[in-house]
Amino acid sequence: MRGTKNMNGSCNEEEFDQLKRGPWTLEEDNLLIRYITCHGEGRWNSLAKSAGLKRTGKSCRLRWLNYLKPDTKRGNLTPQEQLLILELHSKWGNRWSKIAQHLPGRTDNEIKNYWRTRVQKQARHLKIDCSSKRFVEALQRFWMPRLLEKVEQTSSSSSASTASTSTMETDQNKLIPYSQSEQTLFAVSSPTKLTNQGSLNSNSSIRASDSSGKILPQLPEMPQLYGNSAFYDSSVQNNDCYNVDIGGFDMMGLSQQDDMSSLNFQMTDTDWISSGDMAADTYWNMDGLW
DNA sequence: AAAACTCGCAACCGCTAGCTC
DNA sequence: TGAGCTAGCGGTTGCGAGTTT
Hints:
The chain is mostly helical. Helix content is 42%, strand content 1%.
């Protein structure tokens, strides 16, 4: 069986017992980097041997992909990246590698860790299952708008002119999860761009609000965010995940509701979504998220 | 000051799809 | 066709660092 002594292909029992585990040393890292620089990736088991590493091929591959590869990004995820993760996870679930493909420089492991340590922590805090409809709804109504706000803050501070070029009519702070005609993930829409299929009525539109229920400042038009940023791979634009059919939200049982206010989550304990309590910082603490 | 606890992340494990022979 | 092997994925674990008691 894989994962046992037999998983290593040509590795016999004695070799297996001599294999090193645990944290990589600087020397091992250098060996691996040097070898891959000269010979390239692939054939990980033989690579491990040829490089003189007492590691499994699997371990070498992981170390390279998650840590040593030159274009690997380190450090905190940006709000843009977090937003994208939330969005893509709502569509694909725990398909970490697939999600990672859309965040250049980030690894599936990193994204998985982010989800488990940050997002699931919020779910625990709210005492709900992070895979539940309620939690997805919470993400959409509170977390994502705040991330968008954060994105706006960072983009306006780094490029004031870019942020101010959004001339779209945003008389309502409507956030639609997807725009069918534009390949965006999340956009502040003008009313004319809302389709019957994807629109949310104004009484129930997802709004960015602070804990007191105030409507937050208008949010930027998202196509700029995704269209211009380095992490948005233009090659992805024709991917079905962007050319969406609102399917990303169908899975959450929301899109078929023209009026979100009609959603009934049958909450018997605390109706924290509709009451607005959830938006209170005591329940939805964003401070630790970035 | 130190023990207990929590958190974040690197690394490992088990499984499986796909390829080769 | 099926056995063996490789690469890759998602889940889990272990450990060091930081925080709380």
